[in-house]
Amino acid sequence: MATGLPAGWEVRHSNSKNLPYYFNPQTKESRWEPPLETDSETLKHYMGQYHTTNLRADGVAQQDLGGKIRCAHLLVKHQESRRPSSWREAQITRSKDDAYGIIQNYYGRINSGATSLGDLATTESDCPSARKRGDLGFFGKGEMQKEFEEASFVLKPGEVSPVIETASGLHIIERLE
């Protein structure tokens, strides 16, 4: 299957971060975001098929979490985001208003039960955590942006937040544990 990456680029997997990244063996350049001239739609489908982890929640509850929680999220970036690029698009040009419209649509679909946050994040989130159904793993206070942390820690397991704005973009957060 085609990756949508420009000639010379390939997708590799980071063992340390357990995430895919983009590598050009000729130039030895590696990067987390896709290179310019990437066909975003083709890459989105390739990554959804070959680089998505089906995570299991069983077994992790026995860990000593030390006040940490586990959340998944769906991120929609816009041109004013701190880094307006993602694994889906090398350069994000949508306005903040357009991003709000997109994420509000996703929120409605999740809230209605038409889809889950994890299923939607796999193909639509601008965060590399999309490969893990949006799962950010366990984190404690002081590890995330303030707005994200505040919204996450008030959720109960299974609850989904309304749209939250941070410097990274617009998020919907689901508390997993």
Automatic annotation (TrEMBL):
**Keyword presence, Cytoplasm:** no
Task: Provide any one GO MF term from the record.
Answer: peptidyl-prolyl cis-trans isomerase activity
Annotated EC: 5.2.1.8
User: According to its record, what are the GO cellular component terms?
Assistant: cytosol; nucleus
Question: Which superkingdom heads the taxonomic lineage of this protein's source?
Answer: Eukaryota
Name the reaction it catalyses: [protein]-peptidylproline (omega=180) = [protein]-peptidylproline (omega=0)
Q: Write the record's keywords in alphabetical order, separated by commas.
A: Isomerase, Rotamase
The UniProt record lists the PpiC domain at 66-177
**What is this protein called in UniProt?**
Peptidyl-prolyl cis-trans isomerase
Q: Which organism is it from?
A: Friedmanniomyces simplex
Top-down, what is the taxonomic lineage of the species of origin? Eukaryota, Fungi, Dikarya, Ascomycota, Pezizomycotina
